[in-house]
Specification:
alpha/beta, seven-stranded mixed sheet, 6% strand
């Protein structure tokens, strides 16, 4: 008998050593020979070691589980199996595992892996990895998935209107947001959905690092699982086996891992369900579902692209990761450049974003914000030709973001389109929807455009437009389902880009360009014009000439024509080093300053009242002055002029004496000193007349001296004007004198200034309609300069001709 037990003991040791996967231990084999229950996986391993074919009907007892009855094999090939949930009653105390000690050991063993796997990030064109803690920015979570809402296109459009901007905020969120870590704390089973590049993986890595470093759930063990890697692992291991292999230690084997799982000591982070190949998807989903039900004491988080989420895990809470808001963008940028030891660059970056609203929209998506930081880090600015920047962002979403991670997605027929064809398809959707102001659309709204494109490729398969839209969303996030059955481009910037691309790549004569020119004074088309200029290799000359022709249509009254002739005659041949059209622009700005001052003076400013019509006229005058100054300095000393933000609505002014143009500081000029100087001169001129007080006149005298140094005017005696203004300082009426005296003094000021600048009252006494026309005219001319700056190629002779004719009447 002793020999038999010795033989069994030796056999147990041999069988345990035979198991290369380290699943078995000697005690498990001993229980098998004693007839005690063991799990199916261990039983099959032992049969294999003994050379016994288990399929021949060998009887053995399997440990009971939640889903398998004792003594039976599971019919579900995806079902996980475990040892007994609890130790046998007769188990000796020296066999009992101290769970707290096991947790500490496991955390020690998994720590290096977690820090290696989750401690850094490297995406797109990064030269080297960055530490996650150096760059991580807290994310926000929506507990109500936006795409599942019931909203109409009109309701979405109303929500997208931004009262602080002339652009729509397509992704504007109305629902309450919570911090990502708060959501993880509140829900033990969490499905995090989001757009491509929204930061889902980075968030999971952050949770893993925080946990292993003891800053979050310090008594649990984080396991980070890339589901694509798990799905493609050799021999298709069961999830429990795969998790065990992550520890890579003899001390933490299958039995120990089971103990940890059964006690709920793990945080398991499943990343990228959408990245699993279609052929593996059912198997992986089933394993996750069974595992999370059986071991529900643990915490689980799954990430998936929102459009690719086809399976609902019954016991999970679905949430959505939101775009970055302004505060998050600023935090990310500060951290990025702090990590590069270049803190000053962060402020420059934020300032540039404020001057480039379309680019700022892209910054709400973390992956695109990363791209912007990479570009700014290298160049120190954003490129004047924004089309190239957007192209890089689109290539990142359309191709690089998946290919750099060796991910191939399955959706047909969209999958078979080349990169260029995908851009062509998006362009064919963008132009007609943007042209008809359809920012939000149903699949049936774009069905015709999609079918037309596929027909042009001779693709005869049945085209499911809904599936194609879903594929574009799932793969690239360029089209987003904003509500049930309602789509839009993920960013207005991308809608504009593809609209511009459709026009720029059109092979039909100049029909689309001619149609485009009619939109020149519609603010919603601004970015489209700039992008077309940056996309066209040939034809930009035609675009600029069409814009010039449209600009001239605004100078359609004798007064406006006379004003332009005056500006040319008074500046032609002057000694200043500003270009001739710039001198004309500044002259027009000073003439408009007179108009502005006249309105305020004649609007009973002393009694602090301004009529609505006068307020509108003031707005046009202020805009015209701003655009004129921008034109003057746009091409001087390489100063770049970016379009000015319009002044605060003039009808909010309730006290004429308190009107200031401090908000002009928000104007997006590269050379702030030069522009501020020019504005100061112009508005000092206007305020001198409008307010007729000592401070205003003294300020004007100082600015007139600076104006003389610019040498814009050829025949105007600014020295004599300064002497006249100093004399008038002694004649200013005080507040106790009647309104008639104040008006009389203001009239004297007006006559003095008009005479000095060779202007007549008729030339500056413009109607509201004429002031609006001049406002539009100057805006279009400043916009022509912007489009030229953004262009790839314009013939020098074409541009020289435009400069010679700008702000000039023959």
């Amino acid at each position: 008998m002793l020999q038999v037990f010795t033989l069994i003991s030796v056999s147990c040791q041999s069988i345990a050593e035979y198991d290369e996967s380290n699943v078995l231990d000697v005690k498990t084999v001993q229980r098998f020979f004693k007839g005690e229950p063991i799990d199916e996986e261990n039983a099959l391993t032992i049969f294999k070691a003994l050379g016994v074919d288990a399929s021949l009907g060998v009887d053995y007892e399997v440990s009971p589980t939640d889903n398998d009855k004792k003594g039976q094999l599971s019919n579900d090939p995806y079902q996980e199996t475990t040892d007994s949930q609890s130790a046998p009653q007769n188990k000796s105390s020296n066999e009992t595992i101290n769970i707290d000690e096991l947790v500490r050991t496991a955390r020690d063993k998994i720590g290096a892996y977690i820090n290696e796997r989750c401690g850094t990030m490297r995406v797109l064109g990064m030269a080297r990895p960055m530490k996650l803690d150096d760059i991580y920015t807290s994310v926000n979570i929506l507990e109500k998935i936006t795409k599942f809402e019931w909203s109409s296109p009109d309701e979405l459009l109303q929500n997208a209107n931004n009262e602080y901007s002339d652009r729509l905020s397509l992704g504007k969120v109305r629902e309450e947001k919570v911090l990502g870590k708060t959501a993880v704390t509140q829900h033990s089973k969490l499905m995090i959905l989001g757009k491509p590049g929204a930061g889902k993986t980075t968030f999971l890595k952050h949770i893993a690092i925080q946990c292993i470093n003891g800053n979050f759930e310090p008594r649990r063990i984080p396991l980070f699982i890339t589901l694509k890697d798990f799905a493609e692992a050799n021999n298709q291991p069961l999830l429990l086996e795969y998790l065990t292999q992550l520890f890579d230690s003899e001390l933490i084997n299958l039995q120990a891992v089971k103990q940890l799982i059964e006690q709920g000591k793990l945080i398991i982070l499943f990343d990228g369900l959408d990245e699993v190949n279609k052929l593996d998807n059912i198997r992986i989903v089933k394993q996750i579902e069974n595992f999370t039900i059986k071991y529900n004491k643990n915490q689980f988080i799954i990430t998936c692209r929102i459009a690719a989420c086809e399976y609902i895990f019954e016991n999970f809470t679905d949430v959505e990761i939101t775009d970055f808001d302004e505060k998050q963008i600023e935090t990310f940028v500060n951290k990025w450049f702090d990590s590069k030891n270049d803190t000053s660059r962060a402020k420059e970056f934020i300032d540039e974003l404020e001057r480039n609203k379309p680019i700022k929209e892209l910054a709400t998506t973390p992956i695109l914000l990363t791209l912007l930081c990479l570009v700014f880090e290298e160049k120190g600015t954003f490129p004047q030709n924004r089309a190239k920047l957007y192209e890089d962002g689109l290539d990142a979403l359309l191709e690089k973001w998946d290919t750099t991670r060796y991910i191939e997605r399955d959706q047909l027929p969209y999958k078979n389109l080349s990169l260029k064809q995908r851009k062509d398809l998006l362009s064919q959707i963008a132009y007609p929807t943007f042209n008809s102001s359809k920012y939000f659309f149903k699949p049936e709204d774009v069905e015709e455009y999609i079918i037309q494109y596929y027909n042009s490729l001779n693709i005869k398969d049945d085209i499911d437009t809904k599936k194609i839209l879903e594929s574009i969303e799932a793969q690239h996030g360029l089209l987003i389902e904003r509500a049930r059955g309602i789509y839009s481009f993920s960013h207005l910037t991308f809608h504009e880009y593809f609209t511009a691309r459709n026009i720029a790549t059109s092979t039909t004569d100049n029909k689309l360009l001619l149609q485009l020119s009619t939109h020149i004074n519609e603010r919603r088309w601004e970015e489209v014009f700039l992008l077309i200029a940056g996309l066209m290799r040939d034809g930009t000359d035609q675009l600029l000439l069409l814009m010039e022709k449209e600009a001239h249509s605004y100078i359609n009254t004798p007064k406006l024509q006379a004003l332009l002739r005056w500006a040319h005659e008074e500046t032609a041949g002057s000694a200043g080093n500003i270009k001739p059209y710039g001198k004309r622009a500044l002259a027009i700005a000073y003439a408009e300053a007179n108009a502005y001052a006249n309105i305020i003076t004649n609007a009973n400013a002393i009694t602090n009242t301004i009529a609505k019509t006068d307020a509108i006229a003031i707005t046009h005058a202020a805009n015209a002055i701003t655009y004129a100054i921008g034109i003057a300095f746009a091409k001087t000393d390489a100063i770049t002029f970016a379009k000015a933000i319009t002044f605060a609505k003039a009808n909010t002014f309730v006290n004429a004496k308190a009107i200031t143009f401090a908000k002009a500081n928000t104007f997006a000029f590269a050379n702030a000193d030069a522009i501020t100087f020019a504005k100061a001169i112009t508005f000092a001129f206007a305020d001198t007349i409008a307010f007729a007080n000592t401070d205003a006149i003294k300020k004007f005298i100082k600015c007139a001296q600076d104006l003389e140094n610019l040498k814009i005017f050829k025949n105007i005696d600014l020295t004599g004007l300064i002497a006249q203004m100093e004399a008038l300082l002694t004649q200013i009426p005080n507040d106790e004198q009647p309104e008639s005296v104040h008006k009389s003094f203001a009239k004297c000021l007006i006559e003095t200034l008009l005479h000095a600048f060779n202007l007549t009252p008729e030339m500056v006494n413009l109607s509201e309609k004429e002031m609006k026309a001049l406002d539009n005219y100057l805006y279009v001319n400043s916009f022509i300069i912007e489009c030229f700056d953004a262009s790839v190629k314009v013939a020098p002779s074409t541009w020289q001709g435009i400069e010679d004719r700008m702000l000039k009447i023959d």
